[in-house]
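Hey, quick one: can you model this chain's 3D structure?
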Amino acid sequence: MTSVVQSSYTSEQIAVWLRGLLTIAWADGHFDEREKNLIAELTESELAIQIDLNEFQPVTPSEVASHLGQDPKTAENFLRTAVMVAIADGLYSPPEDELLQQFCTALGQRSLILDSLRQVICDPEDHAVDAATSLSNRVALDALHPVKEWLDGLEVSDPRLARFLCKMIPAQCPFERDVNLFGRTIAHIPALCKLNPLYDQLVGLRFKALSYLADDCGEDVTPYC
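Sure thing. Here's the predicted structure for all 225 residues.
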């Protein structure tokens, strides 16, 4: 049985929060049809609205600041989830960095973590970007230690956000695979856990969200497992 949990955030805050994550996800232009369908499903179920992604209006830094900037803890937790969306594919691109910096400035947050991530920026338009230029190979893991500690500090305290995260973050490391077109291999995608040294932080966030839904909200989390 689902228990009644007092959310830490208003519906307006969650709407802006999730729009912010969508804005980050679309920042580098890599947003295929499958991802569009998934995002539309997620936003419809969690916000009870249908977002037309062909006419999607990205959230502005001023909107984020207006709804999420009053409480420093809320602002920092939003930035943590935004960073996780940005690095979920193992690459950190200039458009993602620029947008995160704008959010950070608008929210009055220090940008030390972004300064660390900026060392591993990859240009997604560079067709040579592959495992050799992924986060794990562009920087010594020690350089990302502050980022890992900061991301681990995320607090999950809203069921709508928790469900969104459980659906967005894969339950298992995606399998290594080839992308074939007309019988020819045109790309090779390594397993995400091999590409991304921050994968453990993504898994940790998913576990926090699952635990919150199960322990605090009394929800059945088997659909996410």
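One thing worth noting: The longest strand covers residues 184-189.
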